[in-house]
Design a protein that fits this description.
Number of strands: 16
Distance between the termini: 54 Å
CATH class of the largest domain: Mainly Beta
Structural class: mainly beta
Order of helices and strands: EEEEEEEEEEEEEEEE
Helix content: under 10%
Strand order of the largest sheet: 1-6-2-3-4-5
Radius of gyration: 22 Å
Shape: elongated
Oligomer: single chain
């Protein structure tokens, strides 16, 4: 077990039986009161931020998390099969760790997966992906008085809103965290 003095920004701890990453960590000594650590942490299971005070010297369970860059191969049931590009070892990771961003992933993308003693605890797709538009409606000419958005279906099957000038076959950049259109890729 480690103490609060061993914790730093970016560390992973077990807090209320959940794994949390420390986002902010400050040591405070308010006047004639006892010193404490003020911590802001992100719960890796649900992504919510929480703040808590820890007494100086309090024991916390510090976790050793290894983050690996893996290549997405294919989906098998409720798991994704990922491969380490250096050792060619294949790993099964639950698809639920990717959340909504799973719809923007296609084969051969590089993703980050965090492991705590060979158990995947979090997964992150690339921040921005480039996907082709496979279907979209045509818009009426001259309707450009305001920012006109229309629905478009991407090559992975996900539907997003894109500007009216985007046509079938256009490659667009998507933010995987928000699922929003960023811009189109010029060749």
């Amino acid at each position: 077990m480690a103490t609060t003095a061993d914790v730093s920004v970016g560390s992973y701890i077990r807090y209320n039986n959940d794994i949390c990453q420390i986002m902010e960590w400050q040591h405070r000594t308010p006047g004639n009161l006892r010193a404490f650590y003020q911590g802001k942490m992100r719960n890796l299971r649900n992504g919510k931020l929480a703040e808590n005070r820890f007494r100086s010297g309090e024991t916390v369970e510090l976790l050793r998390v290894e983050v690996h860059e893996l290549q997405y191969l294919y989906r098998e049931g409720d798991n994704l099969v990922l491969m380490n590009p250096e050792s060619f070892e294949q790993v099964y990771v639950p698809a639920s760790l990717f959340g909504e961003a799973l719809g923007f992933m296609k084969e051969e993308m590089t993703v980050q997966v965090g492991f705590e003693s060979d158990t995947p605890i979090f997964a992150r797709p690339p921040k921005v992906v480039e996907l082709e538009v496979t279907y979209t409606e045509t818009v009426v000419k001259g309707d450009t008085s305001n920012k006109v958005m229309k629905d478009a279906k991407l090559e992975t099957g996900v539907e997003i809103s894109v500007p009216s000038f985007v046509e079938i076959g256009t490659i667009v950049r998507i933010d995987t965290e928000t699922g929003e259109y960023l811009d189109r890729v010029k060749k």
